Amino acid sequence: MAVKNNRRTIITKKILKDSLLELMQTKPISKITIKEICDLSDMSRSTFYLHYQDQFALLENIEKEVLEKTFENLKMLDTESNSISSIEIFLNYIKDNKTTFGILLCQMETHAFQQGIMNSVQSYIQSIIPGLSDKCEEQYIYSFIMHGCLNIIVDWINNDFNIKSHKLAEIIYHVCNVILAEP
């Protein structure tokens, strides 16, 4: 594996990632070969293997990078600013990276990523929303919210972002507030 993080290495990895994502738009990762990735990226197999063990390691690297960037965007939710605006910023991040999120959130083969991102985001949200951690039922409430939000976002992606991100942010914000409201 290449250790250097010089400009050439960064560019090479980006090209390989983009190639895999392009191929995953038409076929599942289990059907994608290293040869296809190399042909599309115009790279040799030795260059590929210098950076990744196989196509699954490449996908795992993409998922890790997306998760890190997702948390950078989620940190905005921790502010005292308008929560709808914070959600909208996050939705715009998803829209700006529609190919990546379309694959990682909408394909059955990436179910492990979907579950992982939901668990991580849920833990983060729980840490910034005080007061609910004492409730025995909290795991079910958060699970319901996380799965609901994920499905809303998946529908939005699959419908080619057919409503404005601000409107979707309002929907998510209001639905979550209704669920979290004390009876």
Could you name the key traits of this structure?
183 residues, mainly alpha
Question: Could you walk me through the main structural features you see in this protein, from its secondary elements to its overall organization?
Answer:
With 183 residues, the chain is mainly alpha-helical. Helices cover 72% and strands 0% of the residues. The protein contains 9 helices and no strands. α7 packs across α8 and α8 packs antiparallel against α9. The radius of gyration is 19 Å and the shape is elongated. It starts with 6 loop residues before the first helix and ends with a helix. The mean pLDDT is 85.
What is this structure's SSE topology?
Elements: H1 7-24, H2 34-41, H3 45-51, H4 55-74, H5 83-96, H6 98-106, H7 111-128, H8 138-158, H9 165-180
